[in-house]
């Protein structure tokens, strides 16, 4: 009898506890709070993985103003003339200028149905690409996307402003992060699978439909129509056709005709009108003048991040592609340096990119308030070029609809979207005054070293490579950091004298060694699972490079020796042929790296165009 009463008592007490917990903890889940040791507000912010999955399915949305108000966002005051009147170029005022836009005098195409700019609110900082797990958010209250009127010093000291200008009580709390060693990827996508993914993505990806029509859309549709109705060209006596997915995959734009989806996607590449020629004839780009140095409109022209700097410099100096009239623009360039963003605003040892993301969000609010062009497509016709490790994660949400040309092109992580982003070559510029210094290498007959690698022990993979092969085989010259010692071969001499040059990933999937190998006419051996090589949509990388899975490092020599000499000679010749696509010149030349970067962005935008 007593046992029965006890059971009934417990049955009554339990629902009462649940009821109390429900009203006491409205932000969390009842059972999780019951079973936890303390109370914590559960954030609705998705993890990186969830975010990527949503984006890859084409479910990217722009937060509407009504939704923004529900999340605590308060629109700015309408009069910012006092802020914009200042001509001081210091960083303190730089922040304010990005926040408080002046009114535009440009005669723009207008849609009376769209009044308020639809720019995403700032989101909590993304996890660092280097050795950091997905962040666990303790508390998130979304504040205004504007920067602090307190200036840069306050931003740096506090990690970023935590106060809404109109509501000092509103704060963004710093997320806690668990650091861990970044190991091998859980899922590996071989290069052959990426080829299939490319074909499928060109048909399946849907960019934001323009909210109102524009003449530039018709021009892009016209270009695509010309491309789709041109017969195939298979041979050219002056070009190694196999360098490209098909010869005119580079010289002409690729249209993909899907035949069936039975067991395997069957594709047929139709070689059509010259995509490159259409780009030269048609493409116009508008560069936003907003944003101040050093982060905007300033180029870093040396080092491993120089690709973004040289592209910015040469595009801003270009008179053929650049237009001063945004109505005529097919694409809009966001002219910031991801490297200088990090150098200027990152707080050392803070392990937080919050202020970097917030700064970009403020800039984005500026241009979407001043212009209507972002709103027309949700940013789908905007693009950025960025080479820093953190660029994919820092821009993956606030600029998620843009076409992003990124060095850190990891098909399975870090924010890169295979369906619309493109891979940017990481070129190590030693001398901006002499961009082609030491170009070339020994002929194949004088390349006596089978394979070469040297580099710092960044990441998990390089120690594995050295443990397996350093000083283990005379045919494989595998080193750690190689120092210049008188009487011994230098790094460049090894590159010029080796048949194969190994590019093993460091902290991230990309490395300048891929471009160095091509520069010195050495066949690249890429050991970096899930890396999307540059200009992948155009070049047939397997025709001039070797891809080795990370798990196959113990079989590295066997793999290289299995390549017939005739095949090696063919690949080396193709490296020399493709080299022109990866060279910077003080003034851009036809088919060089500047035009190839531009073509990859143009190619992506044209492929996104869909009839209504």
UniProtKB/TrEMBL annotation:
<keyword id="KW-0333">Golgi apparatus</keyword>
<keyword id="KW-0808">Transferase</keyword>
<keyword id="KW-0812">Transmembrane</keyword>
<feature type="transmembrane region" description="Helical">
    <location>
        <begin position="6"/>
        <end position="25"/>
    </location>
</feature>
<dbReference type="InterPro" id="IPR040911">
    <property type="entry name" value="Exostosin_GT47"/>
</dbReference>
<dbReference type="InterPro" id="IPR004263">
    <property type="entry name" value="Exostosin"/>
</dbReference>
<feature type="compositionally biased region" description="Low complexity">
    <location>
        <begin position="78"/>
        <end position="87"/>
    </location>
</feature>
<dbReference type="Pfam" id="PF03016">
    <property type="entry name" value="Exostosin_GT47"/>
</dbReference>
<feature type="region of interest" description="Disordered">
    <location>
        <begin position="68"/>
        <end position="87"/>
    </location>
</feature>
<protein>
    <recommendedName>
        <fullName>Exostosin GT47 domain-containing protein</fullName>
    </recommendedName>
</protein>
<keyword id="KW-0328">Glycosyltransferase</keyword>
<keyword id="KW-0472">Membrane</keyword>
<keyword id="KW-0735">Signal-anchor</keyword>
<keyword id="KW-1133">Transmembrane helix</keyword>
<feature type="domain" description="Exostosin GT47">
    <location>
        <begin position="280"/>
        <end position="561"/>
    </location>
</feature>
<comment type="similarity">
    <text>Belongs to the glycosyltransferase 47 family.</text>
</comment>
